[in-house]
Design goal:
The protein has ten helices and eight strands. It is of the alpha/beta class.
Amino acid sequence: MSGDHIKYDEALAVEMNEEWEKQDSAASGLVNQGAEDFFTGEKNKFPDLKKAFIEKKKYVCCMDEGTAHMKMEGKLCMAGSGILYPASSYEDRLQKVAEIYIRKEINNITSHDGCGAADIAWKALKDSERKKLSVQGIKTPDEYGKKWAEDLKETVNMILRKEMKKSIVWHDHITEKEMVRPKEFHNARVVWFDCTGKFDPAKLGERIPKGFVIDNSEGAKYDKTKDSQEYPFAELAVAIKIALGDHGLNDKFSKSPFTIVIVAPSVEVLENMKQKITGRLPADKKDKIKVDGFVEPKK
């Protein structure tokens, strides 16, 4: 191992420690108090909590904490902006995801640098498929993620034109400099597993830890296939793998657990989802994960 590589590893370790410490007050408070008390208890630090629940969606972004915590008003979060959504083909996936975004009246679809979902989708392609893409100049996961977002934009606009509606959907690419996490690793301490379809953690700033955001409301309402109903849990499995793997804070979760925070519209949904998620946790990582949650405030 070269001296430069050792220095890089040491610098990365220092940065990861700094990121852990920076969030430790908020993350420890969430773990020690429990989510319900942390957000709505007597020591309430969130009189503006209701403002973090936004009905109207404008943007689609990745579940990545580096994009999900960006200050974009009204975000719908999906891994790679839907690049992993269950479908029989690329074209079928475009159609299914486009229909979700049209229902939500989305007007901006984003992709981003270093997208883990795009990397998963890229690696799942056959060699022959990657060769065809290479001819088009698509040679990396990030380029594939951009292509997906562009194709999705065109699909949405095509459907809108057929329905005699104005085409107003755009694609923007988010660079690593614009993201709100280090480019070298994921600093998520939690997953915000949103069953309301409204929660935007960026509204609460640094008072809460960074986390992946998973929407468990939109697709489940309309697409009743088993694969689609299971899709949010597939995203959750990806988030756990990243956070507790080499690209996340990994072994540091031996000190304090990686927390899955269910954001629920009711106590009944919260308790039901706790059981579902707990039953799906990977056996070899259960000791580093806590499943918790709170109910959306009514006023």
